[in-house]
Design brief:
alpha/beta, seven-stranded mixed beta sheet, five-stranded mixed beta sheet, 29% strand
Length: 285
């Protein structure tokens, strides 16, 4: 099919059943709004400590909707606090041979979308490891899917506290021109517990785009027409932890200001529909 509905959530982490009950309310609301959800993409920090079995039990048992669709994860830094958190708790598609201790990078297709799931624990001060970066380039060039979406934990474009961490700065330099060259439509991010969505970015600049108004399922969207750039989004934390964003003055010196910035004080998530050649993005808190 050329129609896919998926949820984007991140940072559901907590330390007790009540924390995960807050996440469960957000996920239940997401399924109420998107009962046709095909899959859930999670940008990491599912739990507060990757080797804590109770945390994983609280996460998976938080709501019956955890069993409603496949959950496709990337590793967050909190998963990296234990060993092999992803491969011990999820059935993942075939992936390149790699050290799986702190996470896994892999890709998969769903209908006409190719998802590339990165491991931002596999980095150094210069950004993604050389092996993972080479894999990303090969994988993106090899797919014939109409849509290409990258999912990662540590956000490269963000107004959260880690926006100037060395590995984040390194990834931003790696990705700025590379993502459009590889035809990446969106980069779905996590880690910073804030809400942000950029315009179409290329070479650390916002590209000029043609926009039109499109009505889809009774909602009016401003749609970009074939932008020569990549949109980066953080949907806000889906759990109980919300952080204060940094001031625009701090981030403006490093990259263009995001198109939308919202100071979230409650759990948030994104619902994304792909219908043929158009992608519709909605965010909720």
């Amino acid at each position: 099919s050329d129609e896919t509905t998926f949820l984007h959530i991140t940072d559901s982490q907590g330390q007790n059943e009540w924390d995960y009950a807050i996440f469960a309310e957000a996920l239940d609301k997401a399924y109420e709004l998107y009962p046709d959800t095909d899959l859930v993409v999670h940008s990491g920090d599912m739990v507060d400590y990757g080797s804590n079995v109770n945390y994983w039990r609280y996460f998976f048992d938080s709501t019956d909707n955890m069993q409603s669709a496949p959950i496709m994860p990337v590793a967050g830094n909190h998963e990296a606090k234990g060993d092999f958190a992803l491969v011990d708790n999820f059935l993942l598609p075939d992936h390149p041979e790699q050290d799986e201790t702190l996470g896994v990078y892999y890709s998969f297709d769903y209908n006409n979308i190719h998802f590339m799931m990165l491991n931002t624990n596999d980095t150094d001060d210069n950004g993604l490891s050389e092996a993972q970066l080479k894999w990303l380039k090969r994988d993106a060039k090899r797919t014939t899917a109409r849509w290409k979406i990258v999912v990662l934990h540590k956000a490269t474009y963000s107004n959260g506290s880690p926006f100037d961490d060395k590995e984040v700065v390194g990834m931003r330099e790696q990705f700025a021109s590379l993502m459009p060259q590889l035809g990446i439509d969106m980069v779905l991010q996590g880690h910073d517990h804030v809400y942000l969505r950029t315009g179409a970015m290329n070479g650390n600049e916002i590209v000029e785009i043609e926009t039109t108004e499109t009505t889809y399922k009774s909602t009016v969207y401003e749609t970009m027409t074939d932008p020569n750039g990549t949109v980066y989004a953080i949907p806000g934390a889906s759990g109980c932890k919300n952080y204060t964003a940094k001031s625009n003055a701090q981030t403006d010196v490093l990259f263009p200001r995001a198109e939308v910035i919202v100071n979230c004080t409650s759990p948030a998530f994104a619902g994304i529909r792909v219908d043929g050649g158009t992608l519709y993005y909605d965010a909720y808190t």
